[in-house]
């Protein structure tokens, strides 16, 4: 946020706050529009700026000519007369000197305002917009009882900083954990609705259609896929989720993960699904105490790692998704063993053990960060 000189009179004394809004209360979004960024709220609502104030906000669009896009700007402010919020909607002006004004760039937008309120930016999709960047993350219950139906929660969210951390926090409160890395899914803004299909061991068990309008109008939403009880008496099952959008490009993405059942069977012990939050201090200790030359050291590190970080670690070490899928497949989807094989293969590519050790320490320390940076290829 940039507050220019003279925007607030020097003799005005007040506490100024700026908050990020992730929920969209009462803002009507039409079928041809998209919410591409967080809303922002400035308080106190009575404060008027003498000079336009600029706020930079990251967005989640893939746009051909961002400078040609002219957004709509929605302002919600509290009306002291009616004691109700009042909503005003305008198209962006042509100059930052005449707020409200919004200029779109490749990865962020600049919003110019002249008073405190709640502000939202809506993008008409016919204006140079090709796709919206979404991330899909599957979450499953911490405990899945054998013979009981359970829900896989697919969290769809705009690819915005901090959005995944908020989603993970909400899921932990509901006793759910992330069972696979977040998968990028770029929807065509002029395509059809998105079909979600769930398979278990190759057999389809449920299919749902998600409205494209809902995906574009909400910063995040949860879609629950219900998995019926399995007749098999196995400790685990392989779940495959496929996202498909009809359109010119026919976009389709699939992700597969293993769920492990809890509970007792007549011939086996109780199985507990490992916690998503592994003790990073212990992992770092193992790496720092190792020189990476011994296979035993590699196995110890692999056994300490969280199995849910297999793909995150592999991508950070330079492997492709296809390579990681192959490693996991060869180990019959045992990610603990797959992590060991992956670390062995990675160590074989390194010319200097000390440099490799430093790299591994840096990567593991980065897992303590709640946000993921995802790079998307440019538009052709």
Can you offer a commentary on this structure?
The protein is an alpha+beta fold and 380 residues long. It contains 8 helices and 19 strands. Strands 1, 2, 3, 6, 7 and 10 form a 6-stranded antiparallel sheet that branches. Strands 5, 11, 12, 13, 14 and 17 form a 6-stranded antiparallel sheet that branches. A 4-stranded antiparallel sheet has the order 16-15-18-19. It has helices spanning 163-173, 212-217, 280-288, 295-304, 310-316, 321-330, 335-349, 353-366; strands at 17-21, 33-35, 39-43, 48-58, 61-63, 72-79, 84-91, 101-104, 108-115, 118-124, 129-141, 150-158, 176-178, 183-188, 194-200, 203-210, 220-227, 236-245, 251-260. Helix 3 runs antiparallel to helix 4, helix 3 runs antiparallel to helix 8 (353-366) and helix 6 (321-330) packs across helix 7 (335-349). The protein folds into 3 domains: 17-127, Sandwich (Chondroitinase Ac, Chain A, domain 3), CATH 2.60.220; 130-260, C2 domain (Immunoglobulin-like, Sandwich), CATH 2.60.40; 280-366, Death Domain, Fas (Orthogonal Bundle). The protein is globular, with a radius of gyration of 24 Å.
How is this fold's topology laid out?
Elements: E1 17-21, E2 33-35, E3 39-43, E4 48-58, E5 61-63, E6 72-79, E7 84-91, E8 101-104, E9 108-115, E10 118-124, E11 129-141, E12 150-158, H1 163-173, E13 176-178, E14 183-188, E15 194-200, E16 203-210, H2 212-217, E17 220-227, E18 236-245, E19 251-260, H3 280-288, H4 295-304, H5 310-316, H6 321-330, H7 335-349, H8 353-366
Antiparallel strand pairs: 1-3, 2-10, 3-10, 4-9, 5-11, 6-7, 6-10, 8-9, 11-12, 11-13, 11-14, 12-17, 15-16, 15-18, 18-19
Helix pairs in contact: 3-4, 3-8, 4-7, 6-7
